[in-house]
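Appendix B, Record 12. Input sequence as logged:
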Amino acid sequence: MKQHLKELSLGVAPVFILISILHFTITPVGAELYFKFILSSIFVILGVSIFLYGINVALIPLGKDISSTLVQKGNVKLLLIFGLIIGFAVTVLEPAVLAIIEQLPNNFPFSKNVVLYVTAISVGVFILLSFLTILFKIPIRHTLSVVYGLIIILLILADEQIHSIAVDVGTLTTGSLTVPFFMALGSGIAAVTAKDSEAQSSFGVVALSSLGPIIAILILGVISRWL
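Logged structural output:
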Protein backbone atom coordinates (compact mmCIF):
# COMPACT_ATOMS: atom_id res chain seq x y z
CA MET A 1 0.00 0.00 0.00
CA LYS A 2 2.81 2.42 0.90
CA GLN A 3 4.54 1.64 -2.38
CA HIS A 4 1.39 2.44 -4.35
CA LEU A 5 1.00 5.75 -2.49
CA LYS A 6 4.60 6.65 -3.25
CA GLU A 7 4.37 5.75 -6.95
CA LEU A 8 1.09 7.59 -7.48
CA SER A 9 2.32 10.66 -5.62
CA LEU A 10 5.34 10.79 -7.93
CA GLY A 11 3.05 10.33 -10.93
CA VAL A 12 0.60 13.07 -9.92
CA ALA A 13 3.30 15.50 -8.76
CA PRO A 14 4.41 16.74 -12.23
CA VAL A 15 0.81 17.49 -13.25
CA PHE A 16 0.12 19.19 -9.93
CA ILE A 17 3.26 21.32 -10.17
CA LEU A 18 2.60 22.32 -13.79
CA ILE A 19 -1.01 23.34 -13.14
CA SER A 20 0.05 25.22 -10.00
CA ILE A 21 2.68 27.16 -11.96
CA LEU A 22 0.11 28.06 -14.62
CA HIS A 23 -2.42 29.05 -11.96
CA PHE A 24 -0.04 31.43 -10.20
CA THR A 25 1.39 32.92 -13.41
CA ILE A 26 -0.45 33.23 -16.71
CA THR A 27 -3.75 31.32 -16.31
CA PRO A 28 -5.29 31.79 -12.85
CA VAL A 29 -8.34 29.57 -12.42
CA GLY A 30 -9.80 31.04 -9.25
CA ALA A 31 -9.23 30.11 -5.61
CA GLU A 32 -12.27 27.83 -5.31
CA LEU A 33 -11.45 25.79 -8.41
CA TYR A 34 -7.79 25.51 -7.45
CA PHE A 35 -8.76 24.28 -3.98
CA LYS A 36 -11.01 21.64 -5.59
CA PHE A 37 -8.06 20.62 -7.77
CA ILE A 38 -5.88 20.12 -4.67
CA LEU A 39 -8.54 17.99 -2.99
CA SER A 40 -9.12 16.00 -6.18
CA SER A 41 -5.40 15.28 -6.52
CA ILE A 42 -5.34 13.92 -2.96
CA PHE A 43 -8.44 11.80 -3.60
CA VAL A 44 -6.92 10.43 -6.82
CA ILE A 45 -3.76 9.34 -5.01
CA LEU A 46 -5.67 7.73 -2.14
CA GLY A 47 -8.40 6.18 -4.28
CA VAL A 48 -6.18 4.67 -6.95
CA SER A 49 -3.77 3.38 -4.29
CA ILE A 50 -6.60 1.52 -2.58
CA PHE A 51 -7.83 0.28 -5.96
CA LEU A 52 -4.40 -1.08 -6.93
CA TYR A 53 -3.99 -2.68 -3.53
CA GLY A 54 -7.30 -4.49 -3.97
CA ILE A 55 -6.32 -5.57 -7.48
CA ASN A 56 -3.03 -7.10 -6.31
CA VAL A 57 -4.35 -8.64 -3.11
CA ALA A 58 -7.61 -10.14 -4.37
CA LEU A 59 -8.55 -9.70 -8.03
CA ILE A 60 -5.40 -11.04 -9.70
CA PRO A 61 -5.01 -14.11 -7.42
CA LEU A 62 -8.74 -14.80 -7.78
CA GLY A 63 -8.58 -14.70 -11.58
CA LYS A 64 -5.59 -17.05 -11.69
CA ASP A 65 -7.16 -19.52 -9.25
CA ILE A 66 -10.52 -19.62 -11.04
CA SER A 67 -9.11 -20.21 -14.52
CA SER A 68 -6.42 -22.71 -13.47
CA THR A 69 -8.87 -24.70 -11.32
CA LEU A 70 -11.44 -24.94 -14.11
CA VAL A 71 -8.79 -26.17 -16.56
CA GLN A 72 -7.38 -28.70 -14.09
CA LYS A 73 -10.85 -30.12 -13.44
CA GLY A 74 -11.59 -30.34 -17.17
CA ASN A 75 -14.41 -27.80 -17.08
CA VAL A 76 -13.31 -26.16 -20.33
CA LYS A 77 -16.86 -25.35 -21.45
CA LEU A 78 -17.56 -23.67 -18.13
CA LEU A 79 -14.30 -21.73 -18.45
CA LEU A 80 -15.28 -20.49 -21.92
CA ILE A 81 -18.75 -19.48 -20.72
CA PHE A 82 -17.16 -17.75 -17.74
CA GLY A 83 -14.78 -15.86 -20.03
CA LEU A 84 -17.66 -14.76 -22.26
CA ILE A 85 -19.78 -13.55 -19.36
CA ILE A 86 -16.98 -11.87 -17.42
CA GLY A 87 -15.73 -10.11 -20.56
CA PHE A 88 -19.22 -8.73 -21.14
CA ALA A 89 -19.87 -7.76 -17.52
CA VAL A 90 -16.53 -6.07 -16.86
CA THR A 91 -16.75 -4.04 -20.09
CA VAL A 92 -20.27 -2.82 -19.34
CA LEU A 93 -18.96 -1.49 -16.02
CA GLU A 94 -15.67 -0.06 -17.37
CA PRO A 95 -15.74 3.71 -16.65
CA ALA A 96 -13.54 4.60 -19.64
CA VAL A 97 -15.88 2.80 -22.06
CA LEU A 98 -18.95 4.46 -20.57
CA ALA A 99 -17.26 7.85 -20.79
CA ILE A 100 -16.37 7.64 -24.49
CA ILE A 101 -19.76 6.23 -25.46
CA GLU A 102 -21.42 9.19 -23.74
CA GLN A 103 -19.40 11.44 -26.06
CA LEU A 104 -20.69 9.86 -29.27
CA PRO A 105 -22.15 12.46 -31.64
CA ASN A 106 -25.92 12.85 -31.76
CA ASN A 107 -25.98 11.90 -35.44
CA PHE A 108 -24.30 8.56 -34.76
CA PRO A 109 -26.34 5.92 -36.63
CA PHE A 110 -26.78 3.67 -33.58
CA SER A 111 -27.92 4.38 -30.04
CA LYS A 112 -25.43 4.53 -27.18
CA ASN A 113 -26.90 1.40 -25.60
CA VAL A 114 -26.43 -0.55 -28.83
CA VAL A 115 -22.79 0.55 -29.04
CA LEU A 116 -22.19 -0.30 -25.36
CA TYR A 117 -23.68 -3.79 -25.54
CA VAL A 118 -22.12 -4.63 -28.91
CA THR A 119 -18.76 -3.56 -27.48
CA ALA A 120 -19.25 -5.66 -24.35
CA ILE A 121 -20.35 -8.73 -26.32
CA SER A 122 -17.34 -8.42 -28.61
CA VAL A 123 -14.97 -8.30 -25.64
CA GLY A 124 -16.58 -11.43 -24.21
CA VAL A 125 -16.32 -13.24 -27.56
CA PHE A 126 -12.67 -12.32 -27.99
CA ILE A 127 -11.85 -13.30 -24.39
CA LEU A 128 -13.33 -16.68 -25.28
CA LEU A 129 -11.23 -16.71 -28.47
CA SER A 130 -8.08 -15.89 -26.52
CA PHE A 131 -8.79 -18.75 -24.10
CA LEU A 132 -9.13 -21.13 -27.05
CA THR A 133 -5.85 -19.81 -28.44
CA ILE A 134 -4.10 -20.71 -25.18
CA LEU A 135 -5.87 -24.05 -24.73
CA PHE A 136 -5.12 -25.25 -28.26
CA LYS A 137 -1.62 -23.71 -28.19
CA ILE A 138 -2.27 -21.65 -31.33
CA PRO A 139 0.57 -19.14 -31.85
CA ILE A 140 -0.72 -15.68 -31.07
CA ARG A 141 0.84 -14.31 -34.27
CA HIS A 142 -1.49 -16.49 -36.36
CA THR A 143 -4.58 -15.31 -34.52
CA LEU A 144 -3.52 -11.67 -34.65
CA SER A 145 -2.73 -11.92 -38.37
CA VAL A 146 -6.27 -13.10 -39.11
CA VAL A 147 -7.85 -10.51 -36.84
CA TYR A 148 -5.81 -7.61 -38.23
CA GLY A 149 -6.59 -8.77 -41.76
CA LEU A 150 -10.30 -8.66 -40.93
CA ILE A 151 -9.89 -5.16 -39.45
CA ILE A 152 -8.22 -3.91 -42.64
CA ILE A 153 -11.09 -5.26 -44.76
CA LEU A 154 -13.67 -3.67 -42.47
CA LEU A 155 -11.82 -0.34 -42.56
CA ILE A 156 -12.27 -0.34 -46.32
CA LEU A 157 -15.96 -1.23 -46.14
CA ALA A 158 -17.09 0.78 -43.11
CA ASP A 159 -18.27 4.37 -43.05
CA GLU A 160 -15.22 6.59 -42.58
CA GLN A 161 -16.62 8.48 -39.59
CA ILE A 162 -16.69 5.19 -37.65
CA HIS A 163 -12.94 4.49 -37.98
CA SER A 164 -11.63 6.70 -35.17
CA ILE A 165 -14.52 5.79 -32.87
CA ALA A 166 -13.83 2.08 -33.33
CA VAL A 167 -10.15 2.46 -32.50
CA ASP A 168 -10.82 4.63 -29.45
CA VAL A 169 -13.44 2.27 -28.05
CA GLY A 170 -11.13 -0.70 -28.59
CA THR A 171 -8.30 1.03 -26.77
CA LEU A 172 -10.43 2.01 -23.79
CA THR A 173 -11.80 -1.49 -23.19
CA THR A 174 -8.37 -2.33 -21.82
CA GLY A 175 -8.85 -0.17 -18.74
CA SER A 176 -7.61 -0.26 -15.18
CA LEU A 177 -10.14 -2.89 -14.16
CA THR A 178 -10.17 -5.15 -17.21
CA VAL A 179 -6.43 -5.50 -17.94
CA PRO A 180 -5.28 -7.04 -14.62
CA PHE A 181 -8.25 -9.40 -14.43
CA PHE A 182 -7.99 -10.59 -18.04
CA MET A 183 -4.24 -11.08 -17.62
CA ALA A 184 -4.84 -13.06 -14.44
CA LEU A 185 -7.31 -15.34 -16.21
CA GLY A 186 -4.82 -15.93 -19.03
CA SER A 187 -2.02 -16.61 -16.57
CA GLY A 188 -4.12 -19.22 -14.78
CA ILE A 189 -4.83 -21.09 -18.02
CA ALA A 190 -1.24 -20.79 -19.23
CA ALA A 191 0.10 -22.10 -15.93
CA VAL A 192 -1.71 -25.38 -16.58
CA THR A 193 -1.63 -25.78 -20.37
CA ALA A 194 0.67 -23.45 -22.28
CA LYS A 195 4.30 -24.08 -23.15
CA ASP A 196 4.97 -20.36 -23.42
CA SER A 197 5.46 -18.22 -20.36
CA GLU A 198 2.41 -17.07 -18.42
CA ALA A 199 3.18 -13.43 -19.25
CA GLN A 200 3.15 -14.04 -23.01
CA SER A 201 -0.22 -15.77 -22.88
CA SER A 202 -1.65 -13.11 -20.59
CA PHE A 203 -0.67 -10.30 -22.92
CA GLY A 204 -2.30 -12.23 -25.75
CA VAL A 205 -5.59 -12.12 -23.86
CA VAL A 206 -5.34 -8.36 -23.46
CA ALA A 207 -4.42 -7.84 -27.12
CA LEU A 208 -7.37 -9.83 -28.44
CA SER A 209 -9.85 -8.32 -26.00
CA SER A 210 -8.97 -4.85 -27.29
CA LEU A 211 -9.34 -5.86 -30.95
CA GLY A 212 -12.83 -7.32 -30.56
CA PRO A 213 -14.57 -3.96 -30.08
CA ILE A 214 -12.73 -2.47 -33.06
CA ILE A 215 -14.17 -5.20 -35.27
CA ALA A 216 -17.62 -4.88 -33.69
CA ILE A 217 -17.84 -1.10 -34.15
CA LEU A 218 -16.51 -1.37 -37.71
CA ILE A 219 -19.21 -3.93 -38.48
CA LEU A 220 -21.76 -1.39 -37.25
CA GLY A 221 -20.09 1.06 -39.62
CA VAL A 222 -20.51 -1.34 -42.53
CA ILE A 223 -24.16 -1.87 -41.63
CA SER A 224 -24.82 1.88 -41.40
CA ARG A 225 -23.14 2.44 -44.76
CA TRP A 226 -25.11 -0.15 -46.66
CA LEU A 227 -28.54 0.26 -45.07
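The chain has a mean pLDDT of 84.
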